[in-house]
Design brief:
GO terms for molecular function: metal ion binding; oxidoreductase activity. Keywords: Copper, Metal-binding. InterPro entries: Di-copper_centre_dom_sf, Tyrosinase/Hemocyanin, Tyrosinase_Cu-bd. The protein is mainly alpha-helical. About 40% of the residues lie in helices and about 5% in strands. It has 10 helices and 6 strands, in the order αααββββααααααββα. The strands form 3 sheets. A two-stranded antiparallel sheet has the order 1-2. A hairpin with an 8-residue loop joins β5 (about 275) and β6. The N and C termini lie close together (about 10 Å).
């Protein structure tokens, strides 16, 4: 990105963070950004450790593009090429205080201390709560080696989608999250930090890279469970869903009222191309099939 593009992108992110909410569907949301972060919170138990992981987050990026456009941004959606900075995340230009996301947090709550998102409030989280808190993160090299080229290449070796979503999830995806600890490392609401979008742009590109190894097959290959196994929950944590709920609570009645059926569009317990994904009205619903090929009619983008 040019410096001008970076400034325009950051200004649009700030605009989303400041713009008032337009819907009453997302519990606790006060801003447009809250609505966006709430989507991740509401869907959390369906889009992590499931076959929906990659297609829903691709759709989520598309929702973000729409919100950027609402705020006047006309450029491409960026991603962080994390292998370039693997092993040295804190020194990445991504954390520049003027043309980047700002640096790490410190003090109580690990609030970011500089950059464009200092002093902003997000009202979604922690976990399934809805209370005001700062944009926060803790940048380390804890598992950043899992985002290096060798680790990425390894994650992209599986021959089937059923295997690939798991190696991407448990490898570079998890390595990035563990090294950034966005929103206190909260798996439910880490999307409250704008840095999340650069990380998941990278995750989406990995899926695209895997698809491009055999596009005639992989742009239509889907699978995996459409909801978490109660005995497993999140793959990255010990114990099942009940034990994990001790970390972040359980969805409220208001959240459950707008949470879609995890089988929406599917004939059974496996994610299919007909699975329906929703943003609860921010943009129209889409199927998994709609987002399989980024260069197709629905998304219309490619990676460089």
């Amino acid at each position: 990105m040019t410096d001008a593009d970076k400034k325009a992108y950051i200004a649009a992110e700030q605009c989303i963070l400041k713009s008032p909410a337009k819907s009453t569907k997302m519990p606790g949301a006060k801003t447009r950004w809250d609505e966006f972060a709430s989507l991740h919170q509401i869907h959390a138990l369906q889009i992590h450790s499931t076959g929906q992981f990659l297609p829903y987050h691709r759709y989520f990026l598309h929702v973000h593009e729409f919100l950027l456009a609402e705020c006047g941004y006309k450029g491409a959606h960026p991603y962080w090429d994390e292998p370039r900075d693997a092993g040295n995340f804190p020194k990445s230009p991504v954390f520049d205080t003027t043309l980047g996301m700002g640096g790490t947090g410190s003090g109580t709550g690990a609030c970011v201390q500089n950059g464009p998102f200092k002093n902003f409030t997000v009202n979604i989280g922690p976990g399934f709560k809805t209370q005001p808190r700062c944009v926060n993160r803790q940048i380390t090299n804890a598992l950043s080696s899992l985002t290096n080229k060798a680790a990425v290449d390894k994650a992209l070796t599986p021959s089937t989608y059923e295997e690939a979503w798991i190696t991407i999830y448990n490898g570079p995806h998890l390595g990035g999250h563990m090294s950034l600890a966005m929103m206190n490392g909260d798996s439910i609401t880490s999307a409250g930090d704008p840095l999340f979008m650069l990380h998941h742009g990278f995750v989406d590109k990995m899926w695209w890279d895997w698809q491009m190894k055999a596009p005639e097959k992989r742009f239509s290959e889907m699978g995996g469970p459409n909801a978490q196994d109660p005995n497993t929950g999140f793959l990255e944590f010990q114990g099942g869903m009940e034990q994990e709920s001790a970390m972040w609570g359980k969805p409220t009645t208001a959240m459950l009222a707008v949470t879609p059926d995890p089988k929406n569009g599917d004939p059974g317990n496996t994610v299919t191309l007909k699975h329906i994904m929703t943003s609860l009205g921010i943009i129209p619903d889409a199927t998994v099939g709609d987002v399989m090929d980024p260069s197709g009619e629905y998304l219309c983008y490619t990676y460089k």
